[in-house]
Amino acid sequence: MTHRAILTLSGLALACLALASLLVGAGDLSLSGILAGDGSGGEWRLLLASRLPRTLAAILAGASLAVAGLIMQMLSSNRFVEPSTVGTTEAASLGMLCVTILAPGLSVFAKMLVAGAFALAGTALFMAIVQRLEARSGYLVPLIGLILSGIIGAMASFVAFRTDLVQSIGAWTSGDFSVVLRGRYELLWIALALTAAAIVAADRFTLAGMGRDMATNLGIAYERIVMLGLIVVSLVAAVTIVTVGSIPFVGLVVPNLVSLVAGDNGRRTIPYVALAGAGLVLACDIVGRLVRMPYEIPVGTIMGVVGALVFLSIVFGRRPAFG
User: Fold this and answer.
1) Are 54 and 296 within 8 A, CB to CB?
2) Residues 149-200 pLDDT 10s
3) Which domains does the chain have, with CATH numbers?
4) Is the Cβ–Cβ distance between 108 and 241 less than 8 Å?
């Protein structure tokens, strides 16, 4: 099957999931009712104000988080890292916490920029630690990332406890699309733009993952490419945290699963990674709505269970391709 045919089938599968997402939920909504409506009924209001924004938010968040995970794996030369396992997500949550305490009146966009700055600092710290390792074991690098995540998360929890914001930080660290409405998800279009930039620079990220000396010899501005990658990853994490909360494992399991099928060529696989990430998050959100209907299970919980199982199968099923 050709590359174009696979992309077409993947797009059709994502379209089917999107249609299911539009029709599944506690409120009554049917395709026939939408088609027969006059544009002013309750079904149209439910579709345009809730279901469509929620579906778009799941697609945008899933695609951007999967691509951000792929970038992290390229730059760190390790298959077992992603924003939620290297301190990026926790640092973004800490940034949101600090701006909520010190400047609660800032706009959502300004809060996102502050969270992005904290996420960038946390990601840069992880990369600095990794670059100073004498031996990069396939399992040592993610272990360091998990330790760093735990330290930053503990700091955020302590500050939240002292300022009575434990409930707020709990919302940021648990992904949930039930709060998504029209007017409250549009920041995720920034993540789409960042994903497009990552697709354009995919070859350079691949070369940067070979190391400073190799990238420089091939004519790549290593520091600029690494900084671009860190900025993309940090802003994607910040936008997701601000809009829907943290969704774990997307950036870890999706690139690994895609690499099993399509290989490790960054330019070739990054469209598959984006489509698979969007489809996986959308499918988990649909499952979360169906399991206890009319109640919902947050997508972060569903993705945590699915991601953990897939991650364990990857760990025990093969050695990492990088590292």
Assistant:
1) no
2) 999 989 988 988 888 888 778 777 778 888 888 877 888 899 889 888 888 8
3) 3-317 (1.10.3470.10)
4) no
